[in-house]
Specification:
Blueprint (H helix, E strand, L loop, with lengths): L4 E2 L2 E2 L4 H26 L5 E2 L7 E2 L2 H25 L3 H15 L1 H6 L4 H32 L5
Antiparallel strand pairs: 1-2, 3-4
């Protein structure tokens, strides 16, 4: 078992459960930023990269763009846990690097400064939810078990 059992139920100390909740929280956080920025403040998130058609980033796009890297991050962490006791450190360094790199398309987008701010905040929101939870669960797993799952 990967979780800590209390009263017959797996608690939040289960890495799978904590990571799944973190992914849901990351998507919710990104969507909350979108709701504030797009419908409430009126920043119509239409972005254009050089040589591409303008794209309107609605709730579905924001949700997918938050969920996809969350799933990939989880997969990378699980893979690292299976091959190295330094999984938490390696994953965290990779996650922070990818978070920083994720701002490059935002900076390069041909859109207003307000739109760029909203998009940048969605990136920060996803990272702020995922990185601490994934790091914490990797650290706990490594200390608790050597099998990885």
């Amino acid at each position: 078992m990967t979780g800590v059992r209390t009263g017959g139920r797996t608690g939040l100390k289960s890495p799978r459960r904590a990571r799944a909740l973190a992914m849901a929280g990351a998507v919710a956080a990104a969507l909350a930023i979108w709701v504030i920025g797009d419908p409430l403040l009126g920043h119509d998130l239409v972005v254009q990269q050089k040589g591409q058609q303008p794209r309107d980033l609605g709730a579905a796009a924001i949700g997918i763009f938050a969920l996809a890297p969350s799933l990939l991050g989880w997969a990378l962490l699980v893979a690292l846990e299976r091959v190295t006791p330094l999984a938490a450190r390696i994953w965290t360094a990779a996650a922070l690097t990818l978070l920083a790199v994720s701002f490059l398309p935002v900076i390069a987008a041909e859109t207003s400064g307000g739109n760029k701010a909203v998009l940048a905040l969605t990136h920060v929101a996803v990272g702020a939810v995922l990185i601490p939870v994934f790091w914490r669960t990797a650290t706990a797993r490594r200390a608790g078990t050597r099998s990885g799952q």
